[in-house]
């Protein structure tokens, strides 16, 4: 069997396949590729669909902070999927972030997208949510730059993908943004206006990322200790999904920043089906580092020391543990060679932990059986 047999399928096919079911697709940000095989194996054994993704900050033409270019990431994910012979997954470009929206930035972004398409990506998240016009007189004016840039890049993806189908995620409301009143949440009217404007431009996203109270990575208490994130506003999320439905706009919601949220809460209280994609990133990095602590203590110490030496001066007043926790991702590229040349016993432990944790995520997301669902759905359309 070649890697090609188990290559990624369209993100749109997966997201449309679960639409109408109370399930969430897990999207894993695999910053250290070793976890991928365990995730794929769990997906196969539970018949769950899955997305593998990296954000622009994590993976760009220079490798981002993971050291993986889109081509390297794609190759590693295809290899891992082939090893376990699993083929119901999408290769997704998370947070293709645009912060200014000027010509130079758009141009560089198109180059990144081209490299992702060439590498075989099957799904894309355009994130122009930073472009918010605070002077706008109405919602449409406030979102005009986001709408313009998202439209231009979506059209670019479409022309580069030619006749191939792909998944599209867009974002309104910057995730984790705070003002003096705390986290700024997306309003239902903003979500409706944004999707309506994109649809008018011929852009039909599968999924919309909103700011609903989550933050990326861990949440900390006043002493810098990691605590559970309980800030996701579920009623607001439901209200947004309802407003989209009321306006006959066909798009699901993407939940970002799930790492800190207890899975029993997701299992019992998340509006599955309103939320159809859930991003889990930092969690997988924690899995690797937890294993390294025991299996590769000297490597772990080198990573710890390097991170603190570099980032302690930049974070005055913060406890060492929080400085490490918040910045250890930057060590992944620095220790790339070492991380990918650890012993087989270490890799086995990483795979096994990734496998077990994936089972729990797939269960909490009600994703068991979603891979077959997709096949049945496809059959229904073309008997
Ligand atoms: Zn995100």
Characterize the structure shown:
With 383 residues, the protein is of the alpha/beta class. It has a single domain (3-289, 358-377), classed as Aldolase class I (TIM Barrel, Alpha-Beta Barrel), CATH 3.20.20.70. The protein contains 16 helices and 12 strands. The strands form 3 sheets. The chain has an 8-stranded parallel barrel with strand order 1-2-3-4-5-8-11-12, surrounded by 7 helices. A two-stranded antiparallel ribbon has the order 6-7. α9 (263-269) packs parallel to α15 (344-364) and α10 packs across α11. The radius of gyration is 20 Å and the shape is globular. Residues 378-383 have low confidence and may be disordered. It binds zinc ion (ZN). Zinc ion is lined by residues 95, 175, 216, 256, 279.
